[in-house]
Amino acid sequence: MKRDFPVLFERSRAGRRGTLPPAPPEVDLASLLGGDNLREAPPRLPEVDELTVVRHYTNLSRRQVGVDTNFYPLGSCTMKYNPRVNEAASALFAELHPYQDPDTAQGALQIMYELQGYLAEITGMDAVTLQPAAGAHGELTGMLLIRAYHESRGEGEQRRVVLVPDSAHGSNPATASMAGYEVQEVPSGPDGEVDLDALRAALGPQVAAIMLTNPNTLGLFERKILELIDAAHDQGVQLYYDGANLNAIMGWARPGDMGFDVIHLNLHKTFSTPHGGGGPGSGPVGAKAHLAPFLPLPLVKREDGRYLLDYDRPQSIGRMRSFYGNFGVMVRAYVYIRMLGAEGLKKASAMAVLNANYLRKKLAEVGYRIPYDRLCKHEFIAQPPGGLKALDVAKALLDYGYHPPTIYFPLIVKEAMMIEPTETESQETLDEYVSAMAEIARRGLEDPEWIAHTPYHTPVRRLDEVAANRKPVLRWRPEGED
Amino acid sequence: MDFTPHTPDDVRAMLEALGMQELRELFADLPDAILEPELNLPAPLSEQEVLEHVSELAAKNAPAGKAFLGGGQRPHFIPSIIPALVQRGEFLTAYTPYQPEVSQGVLQAVFEYQTMIAELTALDASNASLYDGAAALAEGVLLALRQTRRMGVVVSQGVHPEYRQVLATYLHAVGAELRTVNLQDGLTPEMEFGDEIGAVVLQSPNFLGAIENPAPWIEAAHAARALVVYVADPLSLALLKPPGRWGADIAVGDGQPLGNPMNFGGPQFGYIAVREKLVRQLPGRLVSQTHDVDGRRGYVLALAAREQHIRRAKAKSNITTNAQLTALMGAMHLATLGPDGFAEVAKASVARAHALAAELIRLPGVELVTPEPFFNEFALRLPRPVQSVRALLAERGLHAAAPVSQEYGENIALFAATERHGDSDLHELVQAMGEVLS
């Protein structure tokens, strides 16, 4: 049995130092801060030398895969390459304080102003806020805009329901609840698209909004989208676009042109900013003109050649985040858009869709089932052959050096594997992945014991999640302490 | 440059495999009426060109690495190993750790982060991070309302005004009632709470920098069976009695002072820590220790049944992406400093701020608004409009005197000092203030 990888606290030795700050001035803390206010004992942080910190985190990183190390076709997460130039560019803006005189931060404000404009152009919206810190935060912002709009028309009390397709991302219904709405699910039809008749039947004066992603989570473009949106608008219902899947259609179609009223984007998916193991991201929100007055405070505007923070927005829903949002993430997305331009964005989406369709075709050839086997967009759903479990295929993939797809989502497909290769992967990578998938299927069917116990070669093997949920251990404690 | 590896031959071969000739056929399922809009964007740039362009934009900013501005964002020294380690591609380019067998790096780092936050706050459990201090406050209050099944919230005016604005937006959405209690002489007054109040919020050191005595509020809140949400700058917890020791139920704050650059206000991270009985109400990711089939120690995302991808409309929060990489920087920072270094940095920051305040209040017409004791930020009433003072200082290459909202009074400015300010920096600011105010 291999040794456990130490927790940093276990490497601690009293008196070891990782860094020595300049000696602080000699002051009497009790008199400056008040004796009763002082901490009785210091927090028990690890005491380690600098090399130990470096080795600890470097070796932890070697127990982690990312896009930089492995093909990572995680559906709906758009794990494309994160260009390092983004990091270099954002570092140029690290030492700006949010409360410094805006006249001394004109370059930063210009980037925000121009990014607002680029994102409006790419999505077909009239105004954009960069404030939300992530996709779900953008969703909440967008739904609050819709709510404020209905309230401004005296329909706030009446419109209590938000319609969400049964294939939607889980954050959509969660967001609608946080925005104070009741959620009603709309079924998908046999073709994997929203059942238009069921949707029409659900529409009415009690409905505030429909939350959709297009292409949907099956990777399918909702072909009746224009009809659907017309039907909703006829009833005064607002259309919310979940931008998690925008990577499929940049430069090919714009949600605004489809008729959507509000949209959030994930800069950490579509616009190449790194996911960082779960953030920080950025979730800008675009709105049509009738929702723009409600956008959160502040927006960046331009007046007489100067960039300003505009707080004079009396109908605004208020603030969604401290300061101006995740500015450092915005710089990265700005750089990406400036490097690709209109043609590059269009090509990126085309290559993302080409890769997805190619992979869909090739996986079908080696025996994977494609429940909706038609032209897909940036992602598609596959099911393992012969009764194999999606979980087992995912775990076997780990031994083959691949990050698995998203599994068991969307909920409407059994044993779903949601695969999104993105545009930054080559044909060879896809071909090798198909070979691995074929071999896993063959071996798994021949030897159920083998696949049930995969992975064998990862830093740890299958973990006991039941124990973790029954009696979670959420912090390290020294031996002998409760 | 578009970062796609496809050669024209690749594209042809892959289209052929699909029985297609043209890329346009990949979009045949889109309505013609909306297909292929002209996007009006600037022409593409090479890496060299784009870096030149953003360097020009960066040159239009005056870097604030020695800013004396506060509001929970301050220039603190960041050891070189932190940017070096956090740029490891494995950390930088990973998604949320859904596959624990190949995500032990992020998962264990989060487990260690959770431990450090629990230690700092003297509470039982921390989650993996939230967007920022303001979102952490809003989520902390929503948590308290879920637990108490009440809809009333009382917040002290001493809480950062931008955090309170975010809180108001979140509470309006769920129909909760928010009441603000004004500061008296810079401190939160004692009061009692009714049985409709589920959450009581105070900040110490408060927005004006003053160290509050939270005991009366906490006692009164608990007498009304409300929960206490305590907003604390994490650096202050190096020296000050932590929220858990005061009896608070939930602690929240912004992690910028822990190894994160100011970045014009973001990204950094928000932290939240709670007492044991509230763990299952926590929003966002939680990492638990467990073991694998061979008995080796490992880590997984735990209690996912609270979360949106399982519970959908009944989730505790809609949050998915949080602030993992920036929280990791916070953990690396605390690990590098250790308990002694952390205390030394805080002590230097306190000493510098007190030295600066003592000099500035000698200037004619300048008055200390923050009652003693204060920590490393303080508010002054200036004899001139604050915006113009800040602008005149900026002309001299100094960043100080953050304008404080009118709700706290006229002509109030926020100042801060940290271990990055040496004697000569303090002297330069005092001299410039003297000139600007004369």
Task: Count interface residues per chain for the largest interface.
Answer: A-B, 203 and 205 residues
Stretches with pLDDT under 50, minimum 5 residues of chain B: none
Computed CA radius of gyration of chain A, to the nearest angstrom: 25 Å
Q: How many angstroms does the end-to-end distance of chain A come to?
A: 27 Å
Tally of distinct domains of chain B = 2
Summarize the structure.
In chain A, 35% of the residues lie in helices and 10% in strands.
Secondary-structure blueprint of this entry?
The complex is a heterodimer of chains A (482) and B (438).
Chain A: H1 29-33, H2 50-61, H3 84-91, H4 106-123, E1 127-129, H5 135-152, E2 161-165, H6 171-178, E3 182-186, H7 196-202, E4 207-212, H8 225-234, E5 238-242, H9 255-258, E6 262-264, E7 285-287, E8 299-303, E9 306-310, H10 327-365, E10 380-382, H11 390-399, E11 406-407, E12 417-419, H12 427-446, H13 448-452, H14 465-470
Parallel strand pairs in A: 2-3, 2-4, 4-5, 5-6
Antiparallel strand pairs in A: 1-7, 6-7, 8-9, 10-12, 11-12
Chain B: H1 8-17, H2 47-59, H3 81-86, H4 89-92, H5 104-121, E1 125-126, H6 133-148, E2 152-156, H7 161-174, E3 177-181, E4 197-203, H8 215-223, E5 227-231, H9 243-246, E6 250-254, E7 270-274, E8 287-291, E9 297-301, H10 308-311, H11 324-360, E10 367-368, E11 377-381, H12 386-395, E12 402-403, E13 412-416, H13 423-437
Parallel strand pairs in B: 2-3, 2-4, 4-5, 5-6
Antiparallel strand pairs in B: 1-7, 6-7, 8-9, 10-11, 11-13, 12-13
Helix pairs in contact in B: 5-11, 6-7, 11-13
